Amino acid sequence: MCMDKTTDRKQKAAYVTAIISFVAGWCLTIAGFCVEPTGEVSGSVLAVLGEAMVYAASVFGVTLYFNHQMAKFREDTRRYLEEEEKKEEA
After folding, report:
1. Of the candidates 54, 48, 57, which has an alpha carbon nearest to the alpha carbon of residue 27?
2. Which of 35, 52, 57, 73 has its CA 20 to 30 A from that of 67?
3. How far apart are CA 20 and CA 13, in angstroms?
4. In angstroms, rounded to a whole number, what is the distance separating the alpha carbons of residues 39 and 29?
């Protein structure tokens, strides 16, 4: 299946923002250990980390689910068409 350029760009943008969000969340968490009070992470930093993780997981999870369902649909369609073709030949 050929995707148009707009869909491909949207998917790349989603992946890039998910990766940036994931990395930024962890960087903020690590930085939270270095600022005063040292060794104590603020609740807001943990909230940002949680939001970043949820966003990244949703982008990757939805994409994987969609790709799996599309592959399953293609296989089912191919199998159905082959069966119909065999019925017509018989």
Report:
1. 48
2. 52
3. 10
4. 11
pLDDT at 1 over 50: no
CA neighbor of 56 nearest in space, from 86, 87, 26? 26
Domains held by the chain: number: 1
The range of the structural domain enclosing residue 26 comes to 5-89
DSSP-derived letter for residue 38 is T
Give me the percent of the chain exceeding a pLDDT of 70: 93
Given a contact cutoff of 8 angstroms between Cβ atoms, the answer to whether 25 and 57 are in contact is no
Q: Is the pTM of this model over 0.70?
A: no
| Among the ranges given (3-17, 20-34, 74-88), the one the predictor scored with the smallest mean pLDDT | 3-17
